[in-house]
Amino acid sequence: DEKNQILTTNTWLNQIWIDYSLQWSPEKYGGIKVIRLPHDSVWKPDILLYNNADVSTFLSSISSNVIITSDGNVTWLSMVIFKSSCHINVQYFPFDEQNCSMQFASWTYDGFQVNLVLNTHEGDVSNYIPNSEWNLQRLYVQRNVVYYSCCEEPYPDITFYIHIRRRPLFYVFNMVLPCILITLVALLGFYIPSDSGEKVTMGITTLLSMTVFMMLVAENMPPTSNALPLIGIYYGITIFIVSAATGMTVLTLNIHFHGHHGREVPKIIKSICLGFLAKIFCISIQKPVPPFRHNCLYTLDTESTPDKNAYLRFQPSTQEIDPNGARSDFSSLVPDTHIHRAEEEKKLHANVAAKIHSEKPPATNGFLPQISLFRNQESGRTNFSEAYEQDFMRVLNKVSNTIEKNETRLAEQEYRDIVRLQWQQVAQVVDRLLLSIFMVITLITIFGVMFRAPLTGE
Fold first, then answer.
1. N or C: the chain end with fewer CB closer than 10 Å?
2. Would the pTM of this model clear 0.70, i.e. be above it?
3. Is 60 exceeded by the pLDDT of residue 210?
4. CATH homologous superfamily of domain 171-262+270-275+434-452?
5. What does the alpha-carbon distance between residue 90 and residue 448 come to, in Å, rounded to a whole number?
6. How would CATH label the architecture of 6-167?
7. Percentage of the chain with pLDDT > 90?
8. Rounded-to-integer distance, Cα 245 and Cα 150, Å
9. What residue stretches are annotated with the Neurotransmitter-gated ion-channel transmembrane domain (predicted)?
10. What is the DSSP letter of 288?
């Protein structure tokens, strides 16, 4: 019982002494050399277990008759279940070894009255039944003599030293392996996509699981502050690792969603994470590919990484469409066929008007009204064409402004998407880096605990 620090043993206790008052001559009693009497009918030495931890020890003892020989030799064979106090050293639990002792001595007789001697220095384990949790390494006996300050008489005692070693398979399978698996599952949280929203939840769940296992260990251990059990140290380190991993998960989530604010990745972080670390962890970095647009008044910088000033080299046009039909910079947005057709029509009207004004009036006045009418018709047609062209160019100016705004908005959106993508890639690289770091720490912790244990080779 590690929690109460009690060792329970089922022993066969054999006591042999000489009682001179029980001697007889076999010739006088028909050659009888051995007799058996109830144990409570003869004198017995008050040999007690000094480190007894159970007041009902004698109630759990089975005492047979005593065997008395004619020379006064008395043998008392009894079977007793002892519960003795034993200092439990939990430093290497569950790979621990314990050294317990059972001290037997007389309670009222000193060494001059009852002298305790040994039959053998090794305990008899011929009838030992192996325990499922402990292995008996050694059992030996030693006689000690103690002198107290009150008395000059010696007080001998017989002490049995029991060296036992725990079988750790049960605890390894039920406590150590689940802890290792839970830790690995917690580290796999770095592989969960940040958009799933389950990274922190998994870390907290594994942390609670580790806490439950640590409570199970605390229930089996004595409340001592002399030494921490090895498995408790391992659980403490593992809980710290899982807690740190959960905290780092929050950091990576912050990095992942940092691009929503539109802030660019600093050049130092960009060169370290997207350049150096990405190559080490074999992470393919997706480079931004700007779309190809025909009628855009900006250019996309495809070199290296997005810079807002370099990525959007936008030059908005400040020139308006000439109401008289003059072409502005937005003429590039109009198909060439329409522009050539408008120019030819304008040139034709101008040539006709110049020819009419350059001709001399005829000699006869009969044709003058017809020529004036022709001029009025041509002038009206020219004015209608110019008005139509002015309206057309005015509408075209509005359309071009709308297209220009849409292109600017799309370019801004593409820029934000690329910035967001780069922050997500930085978060992915940081996740992989933290996974490697915590995996190394976990392996060092596991092997450190295993090699520190005294039963590593078994």
1. C
2. no
3. yes
4. Neurotransmitter-gated ion-channel transmembrane domain (1.20.58.390)
5. 17
6. Distorted Sandwich (2.70)
7. 8
8. 63
9. 176-444
10. P
